[in-house]
Amino acid sequence: MTATRTVRRTGAWFDLGRRWRKTVLVTHIVSAGAWIGIDVMVAVLVLTGKYGTDVEVRGLAYEALATFVVWPMLGSGLICLLTGLILGLGTRWGLLRYWWVAVKLVLNLVLCTLILVALRPGMGEVGDYGRDLPGGASEPAAISDLFYPPAVSLTALTLATVLAVAKPWGRIRPGRRARRARDDV
Ligand code: HEM
């Protein structure tokens, strides 16, 4: 079947082709997995920083959090978003055709925005606190806010994974065939 006929038959914006679809899907799943892994690492660092018994290790956990987390997390989130967009536009799923894709799109956009506006700005303070902790620095407000990012992000990404696998709720607007059947009644 030609690319034009495939696009017309499936309602996709372009014909991704089998090989490219598989390549982009693998990249999508790997980036989502990396994102979840980084979130787990953030949870471990936050818990170690707060409840660790060795003050040096607690300080290092905060320094690692401030140094290594934001950009890899944003990078994996953006790769997941970009590959998700390509998969949506290049297949019959579309972006705003099925609830499970539309909800994942919203979750991905909200999470990437939160990394930039809620997580990144406090990181300088967290790193400074980590460096000064062994010297007896007092805890800044940014530290207690650190529990939210991994909790919110892990919940949302688990939901997105469940949606991707279960594909629930069907179409946002009924398809042509369903509309015709409804009108015939
Ligand atoms: C929020 C983070 C996301 C996670 C954790 C995630 C996870 C996944 C997973 C695990 C699959 C494979 C499902 C399977 O093959 O059974 C998948 C497929 C898919 N995802 Fe995502 N996804 C995310 C974001 C997005 C976004 C933002 C979009 C679109 C804008 C999207 C669109 C798709 C599509 C269309 C497929 C099916 C591809 C196909 O079958 O060819 N995803 N996603």
UniProtKB/TrEMBL annotation:
The keyword Transmembrane helix applies. The chain crosses the membrane at residues 24-48, 68-91, 98-119, 147-170. Keywords: Membrane, Transmembrane, Transmembrane helix. This is DUF2269 domain-containing protein. The lineage of its organism: Bacteria, Bacillati, Actinomycetota, Actinomycetes, Streptosporangiales.
